[in-house]
Specification:
The complex is a heterodimer of chains A (about 190) and B (about 240).
Chain A: H1 11-71, H2 73-93, H3 98-109, E1 114-123, E2 126-133, H4 136-147, H5 149-152, E3 156-167, E4 170-179
Antiparallel strand pairs in A: 1-2, 2-4, 3-4
Chain B: H1 2-9, H2 12-70, H3 74-87, H4 94-108, E1 111-122, E2 127-138, H5 139-151, E3 156-164, E4 171-182, H6 201-212
Antiparallel strand pairs in B: 1-2, 2-4, 3-4
Classes of the chains: A alpha+beta (about 190), B alpha+beta (about 240).
């Protein structure tokens, strides 16, 4: 004999039961999300705590190393002073004495038979020189030497004749020479 | 608590949305934790990581510096400093400069006609004071003097040069102004965080100039208690 199911419960009761089940489901899902969020937050905080301890330990080690280096300050001071002084010495050594270079240049290019009677260099780029010779050929050689950049190596930039006089069979020549201490061999002097 | 629930249950708006209250609270709390705790900590993680990397690099730097400093032969470097102070004194030390000049003049047989001093200045090369010399001798003696001046331990450079020779005479008259260099010792010594200065073999060769020059080394005698001239005659 087939059974007949008759639901005698009121409809509002069924609706309320469904609602309650929905509430429980929503509560469970919300709890899962909340707990997951709580776990993630706790993990991040624990990880940061561990990291900050590592950083603190590294900074402590750094302070110890600094302290050990500071205890060797005498050695560092000696090294620093010596290096600084050596650098200054090298800097001065790297500079040539311009008057000496100019004098040496002139004595090397003046031909034999001519004598330097006067040499003055009171400015970096100007030489006043007096030369005597008894031979005009040598005088010619002198001018060529002063004017030829291959001979003067580009150091003599200008040759200005200020005075030529003949005295007792000797020729005396007063000249003003332009001098370039930072010479290029290709610069041709002007007269 | 019961009263609160009773009050809420009697509210029709609450009854309508009561299903969504707990999920909404959970979401708000979740978003709050993420925004206020997780995200800031992620940024702080990256900053701390950079700090850690920098700190480790500094630790390595200081370890290397410590090892290099422990290898320094302090006595050798102190001797080096003393030699370097002969070459480039900490103050004018004019007596030592004059003594060196007279030693050179003695070696070259040039005669001193006149000698005077003046303040030099602080040019791009360094601080110096000036010594004006008037000398009498031959061309070869002057050349020798110039060479010996360059070889001498104390750093000196010829600033101006004037040479005159009467016609037919073997001797010349030379007027020189010589710059005698000096450099005061630095007031501030190195900083702990600075890398260590490197001294090369070439640098140390400069110091050998003092020993190998053959010149007598004249320095201030700190034990001497009698009268002394001024180191700097311009003060």
């Amino acid at each position: 004999m087939p059974t007949i199911n008759v639901n005698l419960l009121p409809e509002e009761f069924l609706i309320e039961k469904k609602l309650k089940q929905k509430k429980i489901l929503f509560f469970k899902i919300s709890s899962i999300f909340f707990v997951t969020g709580l776990i993630i937050t706790s993990s991040v905080l624990l990880f940061r705590l561990a990291q900050s301890q590592i950083v603190q330990s590294a900074q402590k080690q750094l302070e110890e190393e600094k302290g050990q280096v500071a205890s060797l300050q005498d050695n560092e001071t000696a090294l620093f002073l010596l290096k600084k002084r050596l650098d200054s010495i090298n800097k001065i050594n790297a500079t040539e004495s311009i008057p000496v270079s100019a004098y040496n240049l002139l004595t090397s290019i003046i031909p034999s038979g001519a004598n330097i009677l006067g040499f003055t260099m009171t400015k970096e780029n100007e030489i006043t020189v007096t030369v005597e010779t008894s031979n005009t050929v040598i005088l010619d050689q002198l001018f060529n030497s002063l004017l030829d950049p291959k001979i003067n190596k580009g150091y003599i930039t200008a040759v200005k004749l200020e005075n030529i006089r003949l005295q007792q069979d000797k020729v005396f020549v007063d000249m003003a020479l332009g001098y370039n201490a930072n010479a290029s061999a290709q610069t041709a002097p002007s007269t | 608590m019961k009263k609160i629930f009773a009050l809420l249950n009697s509210n029709p708006t609450y009854k309508k949305y009561e299903l969504y209250v707990i999920p909404a609270v959970a979401i708000v709390l979740l978003v709050g934790m993420i925004m206020l705790i997780v995200i800031p900590n992620i940024f702080q993680y990256f900053e701390a990581d950079k700090t850690l990397t920098d700190t480790k690099a500094k630790i390595d730097f200081f370890k290397q510096k410590k090892a290099n400093l422990q290898a320094v032969n302090k006595e050798q470097y102190t001797n080096g400093i003393n030699n370097s102070l002969v070459i480039l004194p900490g103050n004018a030390e004019s007596p030592a400069a004059i003594s060196q000049l007279y030693h050179i003049l003695g070696l070259t047989n040039m005669q001193v006609v006149n000698i005077s001093f003046s303040e030099g200045g602080d040019d791009k090369t360094g601080k110096s004071f000036r010594i004006a010399l008037e000398l009498n001798g031959s061309v070869s003696e002057l050349t020798n003097f110039i060479i010996k001046l360059k070889e001498a331990p104390r750093l000196m450079r010829i600033h101006t040069l004037e040479v005159n020779s009467p016609s037919g005479a073997a001797d010349i008259f030379a007027s020189l102004v010589i710059s005698a260099y000096y450099e005061p010792l630095p007031a501030n010594i190195s900083n702990l965080d600075q890398p260590l200065a490197q001294i090369t073999e070439k640098d140390l060769e400069i110091l050998n100039k003092v020993q190998n020059s053959g010149f007598p080394v004249i320095t201030e005698d700190t034990n001497y208690s009698g009268p002394k001239g001024k180191n700097n005659p311009f003060e």
